[in-house]
């Protein structure tokens, strides 16, 4: 209730002295002080649990008011008995709160374990899928290799069947040139012939046509009469002004003439 201030001070800079938020009269305990710790988000707005706490506080105050005074041995014994009963009741209430809290924690643990199990199952499924895809790729590659080897062996067997006696035959050039499917006309790349290697064999390469220096030299060697450049500028179909522009009326006349045609 006392405030301290200096002798030399400025009125605008002087801080307010300490003043308590509330004053409690001696011998009285207001009920509102039991709810002073409640704040927004932590007890406010009040729900079912807060209302139960308020009711318990009121019951305890009524019980404290109903306690007998300590003026005789019988009242002391009765007071101790009532206090023991209240203590057992509070312990039972506390045990009930602990059980509720444990149930909530168990539900949270169950949800976490379920989510962890779902994530683990999803990861295992993804790994199995990747493993299966890898096996499928290896299987397809093996099948492709077997098919390639099979075609190679079939070609070898067909070639051996043509000459099953194993006789040495000379090359018949006349028969090869009569058969357009022979190696002379359509050689196979598997025997070492690649037609794309000599694709530019018949391409014409000329120094005077492919390089700028050759073009300049060719132009110097030719006579000027070879280049009779006579270009006549076409006459404009529209009326042109002195500055070289076409009037809008002239453009419209051309458009109308085209539409008329």
TrEMBL record:
Keyword match Cytoplasm: yes
The UniProt entry lists the main location of this chain as: cytoplasm
Domain CFAP91 positions? 4-156
Q: Where in the cell is it found?
A: Cytoplasm, Cytoskeleton, Cilium axoneme
Instruction: Pull one GO CC term from this UniProt entry.
Output: axoneme
Q: Which UniProt keywords apply?
A: Cell projection, Cytoplasm, Cytoskeleton
Endpoints of the signal sequence: none
Q: Does the entry feature the keyword Acetylation, yes or no?
A: no
Q: Which family does it belong to?
A: Belongs to the CFAP91 family.
Q: What is this protein called?
A: Cilia- and flagella-associated protein 91
- This protein's species is Motacilla alba (White wagtail)
Q: What does the record give as the organism's lineage?
A: Eukaryota, Metazoa, Chordata, Craniata, Vertebrata
The UniProt gene name for this protein comes to Maats1
């Amino acid at each position: 209730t006392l405030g301290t201030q200096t002798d030399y001070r400025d009125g605008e800079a002087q801080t307010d002295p300490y003043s308590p938020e509330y004053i409690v009269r001696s011998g009285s305990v207001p009920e509102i002080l039991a709810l002073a710790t409640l704040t927004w988000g932590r007890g406010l707005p009040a729900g079912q649990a807060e209302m139960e706490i308020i009711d318990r506080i009121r019951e305890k105050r009524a019980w404290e008011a109903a306690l007998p005074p300590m003026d005789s041995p019988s009242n002391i014994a009765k007071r101790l008995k009532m206090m023991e009963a209240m203590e057992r009741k509070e312990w039972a209430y506390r045990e009930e709160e602990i059980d509720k809290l444990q149930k909530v924690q168990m539900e949270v643990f169950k949800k976490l374990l379920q989510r962890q199990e779902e994530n683990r199952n999803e990861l295992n499924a993804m790994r199995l899928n990747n493993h299966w895809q890898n096996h499928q790729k290896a299987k397809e590659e093996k099948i492709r290799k077997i098919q390639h080897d099979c075609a190679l062996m079939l070609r070898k067997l067909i070639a051996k069947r043509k000459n099953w006696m194993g006789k040495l035959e000379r090359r018949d050039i006349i028969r090869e040139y009569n058969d357009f499917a022979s190696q002379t006309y359509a050689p196979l790349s598997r025997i070492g012939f690649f037609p794309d290697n000599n694709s530019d064999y018949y391409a014409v390469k000329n120094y005077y046509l492919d390089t700028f220096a050759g073009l300049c030299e060719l132009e110097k060697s030719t006579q000027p009469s070879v280049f009779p450049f006579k270009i006549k500028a076409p006459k404009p179909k529209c009326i042109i002004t002195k500055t070289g522009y076409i009037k809008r009326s002239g453009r419209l006349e051309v458009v109308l003439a085209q539409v008329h045609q």
